[in-house]
């Protein structure tokens, strides 16, 4: 059954193109239909359930769970901040938002979706493989400003989606039979999770972020490219006998071990639907194995990511409360295998309008829709969350 689900994930990915971890204002999101999952599972979820039933077969990774290095940290309610915003005029508006509301954290791009290190660094280890771009002109000054405004700082590091490094070192990526670098339909390239040099490079960025004063390292794109099992045989790349799932989980565990002495939390972004389906073998993501190796797990449960039928909703984007509540129910069930050792659950929620879904399938997101998501989290026993808006324009008038 898991192989069949994985095949459906692959086919959907090949048909609709690459999914963004987080949607952009202009981008479309990949969605797996409930109908397809029900067909794959033989309607195990029951007639009319609108979602699959978690299998309950997931097992945590070996070894004890990581200790929280910040047990007295504040409950985080944060917003995503691009390097452009952090280093530009919009930062004043974002600081004002945090100062005047219950929001208290910012997730800031330190290595962005292209692979650029977003500030000037003199670290020779980072300069060897990295390509710094000073979008944040004064990283020290930024950290002082965050401290002054009592902002809990989280460094976002995009790991294996790294077009810059792939072009610079194709040997660390995937090469086609004609010798050219592989890229997806959007022109993005990934680097190879089997390469230890890639692990150490990203962890070196995380270590510098910790030394700069970031309290938490959030790893994103911790996976292989979409539909990788279909591409793998046609690509040249370094690999071992380890499965893709074990390699990805191994990176997360290794990162946590490397960063623990620095007193920073380690968190990982993961597709929200990963809590509702078996492990995605193709991209190497297993919800439970990854969760067992981090302090914080951040499933991306935007209502716009789910298509008709999920959580009994004809149009999930129109039902933010029910969609978030259903996603959280599945998340809790998925992590039951970890018992008291489950990580802190801090989801990403939607503060953008998904107009690309088409008329009748989306609604304009404002204060009511954001508040509905927050209420669904609270009713699920989850009180921390992160707001995503690609342009960093957040809805005013929300009671956080």
From TrEMBL:
InterPro entries (alphabetical): DUF4015, GH
Descriptive protein name: Putative glycoside hydrolase
Region forming the signal peptide: 1-18
Keywords linked to the UniProt accession: Hydrolase, Signal
GO MF annotations in UniProt: hydrolase activity
Coiled-coil zones: none
Alphabetical list of Pfam families matching this protein: DUF4015 (PF13200)
Region (Disordered): 39-76
Compositionally biased spans, kind Pro residues: 62-72
Superkingdom of the organism of origin: Bacteria
Start and end residues of each DUF4015 domain: 78-394
Taxonomic source organism: Cohnella nanjingensis
